[in-house]
Protein 1
Amino acid sequence: MRRSMFAVLLGVSVVASGAAQTQAPRPTDPAKEKRLAWFREAKYGMFIHWGLYAIPAGEWHGRRCLGLGEWLMNRCQVPVREYEQLTTQFNPTKFDPDAWVQLAQDAGMKYMVITAKHHDGFALFKSAVSAYNVFDATPYHKDILKQLADACARHGMRLGFYYSQSQDWHEPGGAGNTWDFGPDTAPDGKTPLKKYDDYLRSKAEPQVKELLTNYGPVALIWFDTPRMMTPERGQRFADIVRTLQPDTLIDGRLGREGDYRSTGDNVIPSEASAEAWETPATTNDTWGFRKDDTNWKGPGQILFKLIDIVSKGGNYLLNVGPMADGVIPQIPQENLRTVGRWLKVNGEAVYGSGPSPFGDEYGEWTSRNARDVRGQKLFLPDAEWRATVKPGRLFLTFFAEPRVPFEIPPFRNQLLRAYRLADKAPIPLKTENGKTSFDMPRPMLDPMATVVVVEFAGDKIVR
Ligand code: FHN
């Protein structure tokens, strides 16, 4: 396991025998790396799922629609003509874009991504190609994205747009609405039965052009669920992005290769990777607001996931689901701000940090040959500490007090000194029989997580 992980870190390929051999270096694309520079530095972003579905909030005419809040139309098979009546009630008078950006900044998040159009087909922006949008179809009569883009520009926050390119339950040609418009494809699962390309060309592609034209610099476009998206169709979207804003990143769910890999929802890989990647994740169990979902992740859980992801080379895109009036629920706001206060003190361990040079802290594969639900060998994670690095500095983040002196995994660089990141208090290093360890001062300075910095000679850790 470790060998494969380091092979990935070093950019070498692994041959069938399992032995790591240095092959031709991984082809790098300098333009892509340049586009990705801010993303690799940022590490932590805010995802916002907001739309008409925040009004029913998980319930349709007194009936609970189980599952994700933004999937209500699909789960309860609400006909288009009924669902679109929600537009008459969409009037989020408490929407305060500056407050949203302020929350993201207080939380220590460095970019925001909002659902410009989700699968229900309703756009949070004024669109010339579909009147099913917040400006033309609601009493609110204002462009949400414009207000958020202006607030982001005022506060120096990067803004990206989620756009459901394939599923559009409002349009007869879009994918996904089988209850009004019948199946998407023939039984072969490939041949479209709908005028899918007409939908792409008349709504999805022009709307993506609008997003890239009317709202200033767009950090990224977050495409999703690429049903029926052949590489050729995906390429059409990529061409639009590259032509209109060459610096805009494309996520990993377009249907052709993007600039970075998107993991499954709430999925954190077990190993580190050198390629850019991102985990989209929920703060409770839904993306779009549901009034019955109060299963909030606490600050400690959020912080662990953030550091775990960064120690594996990834980004954490953490969601909030505002309510219909435009207010983000209070509990996740408080939880995010708690993590943000920690990051104010300890952010050096996170922003711009590289993945762990070790890997053993992640846990181990089960020796009992158990498999998970996907048939993969089961991985048993450890959650006591994680490592991140910067030139000359190793950051060891502890989520629990080590019960014995902590032995630094061996590497060849000379160790110079250690200290607690939060208050710079020196931590004596002890070397015996070639092994270096330290005692974490008790009680831990911050029980949620305490970072110890170990300075070493040279830029990179050599094992
Ligand atoms: O179907 C969507 C879902 O509603 C949500 O937007 C997530 C976010 O990653 N993406 C899809 C499921 O993977």
Protein 2
Amino acid sequence: MTQTANRARLVLGNWKMHGSLADNAALLDALRAADAASHCQIGVCVPFPYLAQTAQALAGSAITWGAQDVSAQAKGAFTGEVSASMLKEFGCRWALAGHSERRTLHGESDQLVADKARAALEQGLTPVVCVGESLEQRESGDTLAVIERQLAPVLALGREAVAAMVLAYEPVWAIGTGRTATPEQAQEVHAAIRAALTKLGAPQVQVLYGGSVKAANAATLFAMADIDGALVGGASLVAEEFLRIAAN
Ligand code: PEP
């Protein structure tokens, strides 16, 4: 297993709202058929309705799975929400929290994202908390301030909670656009996140990069000191490409 400063490499797929029972079966079979043990840690975050299929297809394999969102609430009259305890029943390891599509399309606030992370942790899931700046924010020189603001309520959960999370830096302008941050651009933000984690006493938290990661650019991103793996959208829908990213 490849490691960065003793942090294990992790490559997670985010299928977004893609898939069908037939397409998923082929993709999951292909992932399972690969010798997952010889790659880094791999996981897939799938749409809620496909969790049962995913759990069945990957049971007993080294590949983990999870959801793309989780409710901040434990239970009750929250129509359309899915709780962390429900995800747990389907064997989920991961719950994304604060993906930029949730923040921008569904108005999720920084505090709500932290509340979702806390709810996931309470059920023993690992929240994958996503942060990232828009193109406008980058161009106005606000990148690090935006990341700091987004992380503040998450870090306020305290050292023990944060140590049990994964963070993902996903510049909004690089998601689904084919425009990847350069390794240096990504590393600058990862280093700032690492500094905040170190200050809190949780320097070993894995920090993933996300935004148009593919097999062709993964190696240079993974070579950066503070990039511990990737959160992969589009390329995670093609088994061979996803596995090639993970094989780096
Ligand atoms: C994502 O959805 O988290 C993502 C990074 O997407 P893509 O890899 O397609 O840019």
